[in-house]
Predict the structure of Zinc finger protein.
Amino acid sequence: MREHCFKGPTVRKRKRKPSVPLQEKNESGETVYRCAECSKQFPAEGLLRIHTRVYHGGTIECSLCPAEASSERDLEKHMVAEHGDSAPLKCSVCNSPHFSPEILKSHELWCSTLGKLKKNLKCQLCDFNTIQYDELCQH
């Protein structure tokens, strides 16, 4: 089995001015929020915050390759898709690979709750059981 030295994600922040949401009315009189950096308009302040973080915020670098992500969840998706075989953490319920302890904890909570809600599926030929129908079919 290959072993990798896992370093946590590296955050590279871009300098930016603290931005106060610019609330204004558009041509039809609706309230919109304008980005102070690129002037793009959004119907809700939350959408402006997401836009600012993704397009004008810092990035998180993958510690195993040159890829970058705008959020820890996006980095986790990249890590599992591209480097899943070297994941240092595994879900105790479904054994899926994870790199972030916080995301693993959230996933395990979801996974264990789902297991309680779904019927446990058992193989008719052996002791194997799962909560996922497609996993039972593959088995």
About this structure: Residues 101-117 form the longest helix (17 residues). The helical segments are 45-56, 72-83, 101-117, 133-138. DSSP finds four helices and ten strands in the chain.
